[in-house]
Amino acid sequence: MAKLPSGGSTFSVIGSDVTIKGDISASADLHLDGRIEGDIACASLVQGESSHVQGAIEAESARIGGTVTGSITARELVVLQTAKIEGDVYYDTLTIEQGATVEGRFAHRVPGKVSTAAPAATPATPKVGGDDEPKLHLAG
């Protein structure tokens, strides 16, 4: 683990030459360039474009740039143009760059509650003006 110079927060880096078979749980931020065959639970995840995750991801915030085969649950999710996701995505706020590939379903999650049920085939109409309104941002 390395210390960030300004905030005192910690982060962990899994390099491109590393393969881990098993689940990862981190209270710190995680930067992933390697290959993970297992589930990941962390505060914040940044996935490099050459990395691969085969398992579920659960994080407060996630920037996905590589390949994910499994579900993703994040409060704030950014799917970069280099991302390839095969699995369902649960989010509070979502940004998808043009060129990203997702084969799965998107579902807005209820704040404070992780959904274990499969999302509905047709999304519900969001409440206008409510705090729980789904947010989708498309980046160019």
Question: Could you characterize what this model shows?
Answer:
This protein has 140 residues and is an all-beta fold. The protein is built from no helices and 15 strands. The protein has strands spanning 2-3, 10-14, 19-21, 24-32, 35-37, 40-47, 52-54, 57-64, 67-69, 72-79, 84-86, 89-97, 101-103, 106-108, 135-139. Strands 1, 2, 4, 6, 8, 10, 12, 14 and 15 form a nine-stranded mixed beta sheet that branches. A six-stranded parallel beta sheet has the order 3-5-7-9-11-13, with no helix packed on it. Strand 1 (2-3) and strand 2 (10-14) form a beta hairpin. It is globular. The N and C termini lie far apart (34 Å).
Which stretches are low in confidence, meaning pLDDT under 50 for 5 or more residues running? 1-6, 114-130
Give the distance, in angstroms, between the N- and C-terminal Cα atoms: 34 Å
Main beta-sheet strand count, sense and barrel state: 9 strands, mixed
Number of helices: 0
Extended strand count = 15
- Share of β-strand residues: over 45%
Report mean pLDDT, rounded to a whole number. 82
SS class: mainly beta
Rg: 15 Å
Overall shape = globular
> What is the share of helical residues?
under 10%
The topology string of helices and strands comes to EEEEEEEEEEEEEEE
Summarize, please.
The protein contains no helices and 15 strands. By secondary structure, the chain is mainly beta.
